[in-house]
Design a protein that fits this description.
The structure is a single chain. It contains three helices and four strands; from the N terminus they run H-H-H-E-E-E-E. Strand 2 and strand 3 form a beta hairpin. The protein has one domain. Strands 1-2-3-4 form a four-stranded antiparallel beta sheet. With 94 residues, it is an alpha+beta fold.
């Protein structure tokens, strides 16, 4: 299901031949950011980091994850399966 939703998100962000704008731009009036939306592919392994509370803290802040979907209602948001904790997480790319 996530692969289908990711494919739909990609198709909606690419302008069609006859259209001047992408479907995402028409419905949301938000500009498509190709560098954020297409910097990772479906199934690609990534390291997801959470911000540190204190700069001198030595605890690990990253976890391995696998990209399973681009979130359709925003730009730069990904749904990631975290391998260690075994749950899905929404992250924003920078």
């Amino acid at each position: 299901m996530d692969l289908c939703l990711d494919s739909i998100a990609v198709v909606n962000r690419i302008p069609k031949e006859a259209a001047e704008q992408a479907t995402f731009k028409i419905f949301t009036d938000a500009q498509v950011d190709y560098m954020r939306d297409f910097q990772v592919e479906w199934g690609e392994p990534v390291v997801v980091k959470k911000p540190k509370g204190i700069s001198s803290d030595v605890t690990v802040t990253g976890q391995w994850g696998v990209v399973v979907q681009r979130v359709m209602n925003g730009t730069g948001a990904l749904k990631v399966y975290l391998v260690q904790s075994r749950f899905m997480h929404i992250v924003c790319t920078s």
